[in-house]
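In this supplementary section we document a worked example of the pipeline. Step one takes a protein sequence of length 203 as its only input; no multiple sequence alignment statistics are reported here. Step two produces a three-dimensional model, which step three serialises into structure tokens for compact storage. The input and output of this example are shown verbatim.
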Amino acid sequence: KGNGMIGNIYSMGLALQALEATRKFYAPRKWDCAQALSVVSAHDYQQPMAIAQVLPALVGRSYLDVAGLDCAATKDVSPGQQLALSPTLGTHGVPRAPILVHYSITNTLQGKHFHYSTSVTVPSGSTLLRVLEVAAEENPQTFSFQTEQTSWGPMVISIHGLAANTDDRTYWQFLSAGDALDEGVGTYRPHAGEHIQAVFSTY
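The serialised model returned by step three reads:
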């Protein structure tokens, strides 16, 4: 994309591994490794799958190097303790300021078309999933939704009773200011006043 991004933030890990492993085949065309690495270094990865794919690239390796690992040389490393965050408290127990997030759902693709909007208040730093949960709690008849757990985190498969379908190539796409979100609902954190749109779409 000219700024170091290859696809989206989640495809970067495998893309970097592939480019590094096949670097000699790309001559004479060069790719800017440093620029791409700066993109992933600046991103706060949360999902284990994304982290697992980007870590090898950060140390100049790829999954192909697994075949040459010396397992006998590895030492037991105890995982560091992580600070658990409360949904309403920050790292030092200070209540997080509430923010207002605007949320709309739209279907102009199948069956009876609909468009509904709401505004919900959540603690700052909340995920988009929490925004959806609050909207559903306040108005379940309109904003009810279902998720499916994937290795990339929760994926929204149905909103307002309208389910995505691989046969129809339909899915719920989440946008902000008209641009598709580059993170899933379980990790994306809306900012105050942001308008999140869920649009029933096709691919």
